[in-house]
């Protein structure tokens, strides 16, 4: 990979169950990012539908609304020249997934990442796909919310060549104080224990209703491979974090040592790396 720099954004927006309004918000942020010469922007888990878990929402959802929203976002990526990672949902073989739509800057859909480890969602099934996709020529991997608690979901793609992990979440609300330390520690750990960048987009808290469905505790962040937080959002703010990533700093050296060092786990790790789907990359 010859590309040296990647300019990324983590977008933190308050959304609700209004798919069409949320789509307008996403398109607006893509245009803002284009003016800021951003290469790739990440939006939080379930941003298209306000990360709703109500059974009646899902039983009455017209999937065509989601598909139309995605088409509009794809077109906006093409028009602005900005790649995007967008929290969405899709159907495949009659099964619904909590997923990220991964779109390159020319509007080409690279694929989807489906949430592997669910956290109480009864409207979807766990995905079985661990992909690397290229965005702006850079190999990237992905996590959705609860997936952050499973280090192998980053280590294996990092060992397979991923330079950036896009972590899109809608975690517990700001009132779950006992979780906040872990929420901060885990994405930092995933970056430093693998030697790759982590770009985290999380839903903010809603100051008017801090326990509202689809809100979280904010604190989106961009993390250097050495574990230092380069920039971080507030808990309640709607904002866009932007940083330039020096890809030469994302060596993946720690992940690679787990695969190459002569330990009892080496062959096990090598077998795990083979599970990473690089076809989309």
Annotation keywords:
alpha/beta; 7 helices; 12 strands; globular; 281 residues; six-stranded mixed sheet; Nitrilase/N-carbamoyl-D-aminoacid amidohydrolase
Largest sheet: 6 strands, mixed
Annotation, overall tally of beta strands: 12
What's the overall geometry? Answer: globular
How many separate domains make up the residues?
Answer: 1
Label the CATH architecture.
Answer: 4-Layer Sandwich
Q: Structural class per helix/strand content?
A: alpha/beta
Within CATH, the superfamily carries the name: Carbon-nitrogen hydrolase
The side-by-side strand order for the widest beta sheet comes to 5-4-3-2-1-12
- How far apart are the first and last residues' alpha carbons, in Å? 12 Å
Number of contiguous helices:
7
| CATH top level class name | Alpha Beta
Unreliable stretches, pLDDT < 50, 5 or more residues?
A: none
CATH level 3 topology:
Nitrilase/N-carbamoyl-D-aminoacid amidohydrolase
Portion of residues in beta strands equals 25-35%
Rg over C-alpha atoms, rounded to the nearest angstrom = 18 Å
């Amino acid at each position: 990979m010859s590309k040296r720099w990647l300019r990324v954004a983590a977008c933190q927006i308050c959304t609700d169950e209004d798919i069409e309004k949320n789509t307008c918000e996403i398109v607006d942020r893509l245009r803002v990012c284009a003016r800021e010469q951003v290469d790739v922007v990440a939006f939080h888990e379930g941003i298209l539908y306000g990360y709703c878990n109500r059974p009646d929402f899902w039983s009455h959802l017209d999937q065509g609304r989601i598909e139309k929203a995605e088409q509009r976002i794809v077109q906006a990526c093409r028009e602005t020249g900005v790649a995007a990672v967008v929290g969405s949902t899709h159907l495949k073989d009659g099964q619904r997934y909590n997923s990220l739509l991964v779109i390159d800057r020319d509007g080409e859909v690279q694929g989807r990442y489906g949430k592997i480890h669910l956290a109480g969602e009864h409207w979807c099934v766990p995905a079985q796909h661990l992909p690397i996709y290229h965005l702006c020529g850079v190999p990237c991997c992905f996590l959705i919310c609860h997936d952050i608690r499973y280090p192998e979901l980053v280590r294996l793609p990092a060992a397979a060549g991923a330079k950036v992990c896009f972590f899109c979440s809608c975690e517990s609300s700001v009132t779950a104080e006992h979780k906040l330390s872990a929420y901060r520690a885990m994405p930092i750990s995933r970056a430093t224990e693998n030697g790759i960048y982590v770009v985290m987009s999380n839903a903010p808290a809603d100051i008017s209703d801090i326990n509202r469905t689809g809100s979280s505790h904010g604190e989106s962040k961009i993390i250097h491979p050495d574990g230092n937080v380069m920039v971080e959002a507030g808990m309640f703010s709607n904002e866009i974090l932007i940083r330039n990533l020096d890809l030469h700093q994302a060596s993946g050296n720690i992940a690679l040592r787990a695969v190459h060092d002569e330990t009892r786990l080496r062959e096990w790790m090598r077998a795990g790396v083979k599970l990473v789907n690089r076809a989309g990359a």
